[in-house]
Amino acid sequence: MAFSTQESDEVLSEMNITPLVDVMLVLLVVFIVAAPMLTNAIPINLPKTEAVAPANQKDPLIVSIDGSGKLFLDKDEIQPELLESNLRSAKEQNADLRVQLQADDQVDYGVVAKAMASIERAGITKLAIITAR
């Protein structure tokens, strides 16, 4: 129902947006208050565990990256661009091939990420990343 100060009996066709603005401001306040609660802001101390013996496996293939970024397949140094093809040929010989990746802690993350991508592109799904205890 619209009120008009005009002398005629015509209905005023302007929309009253005050209730709409009130609702929108209430929703905005609700979202501003609720947004920080939606993030995982709960501090959790993860439990410490004892070292576990690795599962029995048949001769895993070890990919190593030393501190200077050199790549080794078992104990033989290889070029990074040859890693994928060598892993593909090893995968053809052994369908259940397991790979262990170990990298020096001083190595740039990009080198490790490229090695992991080569392992994935070679079709190897069983990858263990070796760390120190």
Automatic annotation (TrEMBL):
Q: Which GO terms describe its molecular function?
A: transmembrane transporter activity
Q: Where are the transmembrane segments?
A: 20-38
GO CC terms in record: plasma membrane
Q: Where in the cell is it found?
A: Cell inner membrane; Cell membrane
What keywords are annotated for this sequence in UniProt? Cell inner membrane, Cell membrane, Membrane, Protein transport, Transmembrane, Transmembrane helix, Transport
Subunit structure comment from the entry? The accessory proteins ExbB and ExbD seem to form a complex with TonB.
Q: What is this protein called?
A: Outer membrane transport energization protein ExbD
